[in-house]
């Protein structure tokens, strides 16, 4: 039992340090371990060159200097994969989440076996570029995922009940985890991104879909069935248009990229495929009263989603990302007024940052999940 307890402690400790350097005292506090047990747990990780101690740093007051523990950057490399409806984005990172190499491939065939084969091929290529076999793989996609293994439904790929982690693990002989892309993104941001040090922290994305990731205590809430943060179909304007599955006035029907382009196309008498968000935001088209109404309505819907989230969770910080950020920046006053209107009169305002991200940063979110998976395995050694 003592060996099993130490193994569990080592796994949890290594996973915590992956998120950033930490003192023994803080680690012990987080894990509920005594100082002696923390020292015994750390020692084999240092001897295995998984963890290293920094130089002594004197605290602000009297007392012994603090030595922070950190993961050795070269102790691991992992691959993070982000899947969209037509493309695969991949990054190879070290144990601190620093990107060492990247790749992007088109998804011309999207059945699970073909995608698995492509993932295995990309992992092999990245391994050759780094001259090192990766330690784990993380995959993120717009889907409901259970137990970080099975894709219950990924509508944009037409998948249902796909055991993707097992399929990729078998194809690559590497540990693999799978997660919803927004939650994976929120996980990485809470570890070593904008959300680091903010608890709770929330990330909301507006683009092809609308989603939310909430990190509490450094852990992202997945929910009982892997669907926590599925805010896209929340009703925001009961008299508004319907989404593709018939929900009247939901956020997706007003603020998703497809909904914005579809509504704009009706005003302009063209096909949605002829438009883009960037084009709609051009000075010429924004002067069109119909286009201005579509964009303003999208910003209002986004504000209601974010404002409702803040009312329920009371996060320290909210980051808003995705293609729709450009619309929110252009109509920031509308967006922020709606958030403010949903705040309880006794509650302090919550900072909301608008930050565009590239898809390789979404892949980095998947890599953070892979790092956690590696830490759990390495802590058992």
From TrEMBL:
Gene3D superfamilies: 3.30.420.40, Winged helix-like DNA-binding domain superfamily/Winged helix DNA-binding domain. SUPFAM superfamilies: Actin-like ATPase domain, Winged helix' DNA-binding domain. It comes from the Bacteria. InterPro entries: ATPase_NBD, ROK, WH-like_DNA-bd_sf, WH_DNA-bd_sf. It holds the Pfam family ROK. This is ROK family transcriptional regulator. Belongs to the ROK (NagC/XylR) family.
